[in-house]
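Form P-L/3: holo structure prediction, ligand SN-glycerol-3-phosphate.
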Amino acid sequence: MKIFIDTAQIDEIRQVKEWGLLDGVTTNPTLLSKTGKPWKEAAQEILKEVPDKPVSLEVIATDFEGMVKEARELAKMGDNVVIKIPFTIDGMKAVRALKAEGIKTNVTLVFSPLQALIAAKAGADYVSPFIGRLDDISHDGIGMLEELVEIFAMYGFETEIIAASIRHVDHVRRCALIGVDIATIPFKVIKQMFKHPLTDIGLERFLEDAKKAGISIL
Ligand code: G3P
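OUTPUT (holo model):
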């Protein structure tokens, strides 16, 4: 399972890259607004830090022509830019048109396997089903993802599934079990994936015993 970071914060991206875990970056207008910088500056900074892995940038327009125009502009920012397109009828028309131009797309705001199926048939490179936001309204986010993975496997779609709106480490564990292609994870959750209380306790004991035994390696 590839790990993308769901953020526009450059320090978070740098850290995950240093940890050797970064396979890509996803942003959205909300995440870009949180940087406090002009969106273009924040996006350029990300692309400078991550020039060789997919970086999703989202359009703001909601009509077909507007989306295509914005996507062309965003695509000029880097060869690794993937255009996030909201799941709407115009959005799916835009995905088709952009595919014909060789521009990669990531269909966002996907909440059902049928929406994902339509996005894949439109030729999307990625689809982003939102797990946490379904859980928030008492729906089964992971259950939806399971169905989606099954459907895509059955028909051999090349569209990669990015599990998005991930809220906690158990979401990540279940994504990995289902066999999702990519999980885009907030920085806080990526950090939590390293943690286990027994690792901390175990290390503390080893260090105490090493001290008692006078072990000094160098
Ligand atoms: O970037 C899309 C998605 O991951 C947003 O997550 O936490 O705002 O539901 P969230």
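COMMENT: The chain has a mean pLDDT of 98.
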